[in-house]
Every structure is written in structure tokens, then in C-alpha cells.
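Summary: Need help interpreting a holo structure output

Steps to reproduce:
1. Submit the protein chain below together with the SMILES for adenosine-5'-triphosphate.
2. Request a joint structure prediction with the ligand placed.
3. Inspect the C-alpha cell block that comes back.

Expected: a single structure record containing both the chain and the bound molecule.
Actual: see attached output.

Input attached:
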Amino acid sequence: MAVAERLVVERASKTFGGGELTVFADLDLAVRDQESVCVLGPSGCGKTTLLRAMHGLVGLDEGRIVVDGSVVLRPRSNVAMVFQHFGLMPWKSVTANVAYGLELAGVARQEIAERVTRYVELVGLKGFERSYPHTLSGGMQQRVGLARALAMEPDILLMDEPFGSLDAQTREILQDELLSILQITGVRGGRAPATMVFITHSIEEAIALGDRIVVLSARPARIRETISVDIPRPRTVASVIAHPRFVELRDRCWRLLRERTA
Ligand SMILES: Nc1ncnc2c1ncn2[C@@H]1O[C@H](COP(=O)(O)OP(=O)(O)OP(=O)(O)O)[C@@H](O)[C@H]1O
Ligand SMILES: [Mg+2]
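--- attached output ---
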């Protein structure tokens, strides 16, 4: 089989307001199996809308999104999303938030209990199982969001600026944890690491986490350029920043993002 493309966006267009607002038009993007693609773009350019379309939460006006060979029409159990604003259920404990998707997917009770224990521990929340979201810091709430997505043991992780609202230090800790979680073989029941689409405003984050970076223009979003991040894994944020290629990649992303307003 040729290089497997797990997620393909084909000539996708999306408008709101009965066609008044074009969010993106004629967008093409292919994400390969086990690849991590980071999407950089200015605020309001349509990143969240694109990711929601990938998850089947919003429909397109034109084009289609194909996952594993079939058109996405609704969320599927092998794709998990981490939301920009956490998206936790405030009336449910950490355990219940992490378990919820598994219950919906009909996973057996014993398996749910095992996975909740495992992923809550993996994201560093052991001891907080019975806590409610409002009693947790932003960083901890996003760890719950991450545990909830990872517990699905998805083939594809869709991440919408998951660390965007966190302070710089917490953010770097979680970036490193995500890098190492994705590198742990066996996280997904012994299967290979997940394919990831990760949306971010941060150039450094895109370089640290991505195999490729897709830079979008202002709305209507178009792909300005796709950049390969030729920095080897395993990575940490510090090792990426210290890598000789880092400055060059950062400058290139900066130039592309700046040009949009020129
Ligand atoms: N349900 C909706 N109805 C009408 N307009 C919408 C809807 N969702 C998003 N929009 C508009 O579409 C545009 C793109 O929004 P989107 O949230 O996708 O941008 P974004 O790139 O994720 O922004 P940010 O960087 O601030 O997260 C914005 O102008 C927004 O107001
Ligand atoms: Mg957004």
C-alpha cells in the first residue's frame, strides 16, 4: 500500500450567514498516518471551523473531508478532539468527564475503569479523580480534556489550541508531556502513535510538535505554505529550541504570518 493518508481535506469551502462570510475556500490538505500536522493562522481565520469540520461537527458548503477512505459526516469513535476552551462538563467529576465518551461508545464498564485510571495518571491528575472542573486550575482542566481524548485511544487526535490559554510554564510542561505521550508505544493498546492535527497561534509550539506546519492566511483561509519540520524525534521543547534548524523555521513562519497583512 502507498503511504497511507488518514485524513484528507478536498477542495473544502465553508461559509456562514447564508454565504456572507467565507471562512475558507477551496482548501486541500492531506495528513498521513502517524503524522503530526500543526496549523498556524491568524485569529478568526477559520481554524476551529476547519477542525470541527474534520470531526464532523459542522458541514461544508463545498468539497469533502475523508477519514480512512470514507467521507466524514458525523463524529466517529476513532477520532478524538481536544477543545480550545476545555469543553468539560462542570457537573461531572474528573473521572466522569474522562469516562463519558467511553460510555457513549459502549465500552465495557471494567475497561472504562481501567482506562480512566491509566489516562488520568498519565496526564498527572492522580488524586484528583473526584474533583470537579471548577476546583481545578486551567492547566489541570486541560489535562482532563487531554485525558478524555487519549482515553478513547483514538487513531486521530484533533487539538484546537489546547494550551493556548495557559501560562508559558504550564504550557511548556504540557507540550513536553504530549510529546512524550505520543512517543510512548503502548499508549493506544499497543498500537502505533496517533495521527494528529494540532491548531496553534504559537510558532514555537508548531515547530516543537509538528512534522509539518501548515500556515494559513487571514480569512478566507488559504494555505500559504506547508513547511516540513526536519527536527528528529524524540523531541522535547528545549531540544527543539536548541536545534540549529529552529531559528530558520521560526523566521520562515514569522515571515509567512506577517506577509498576510502587508
Ligand atoms: N457558528 C457560527 N456561525 C457564524 N459564524 C461563525 C460560526 N462559527 C464561527 N464563525 C465565524 O467564522 C470565523 C472563523 O471562526 P473560527 O472560530 O473558525 O476561527 P479561528 O481561526 O479558530 O479563531 P481563533 O484563532 O480566535 O480561535 C469567525 O469570523 C467567526 O466569527
Ligand atoms: Mg479557534
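--- end attachment ---

Reviewer comment: Residues 84-153 form one domain. Helices lie at 47-54, 94-104, 109-122, 138-151, 168-183, 203-209, 237-242, 246-259.
Status: needs-info
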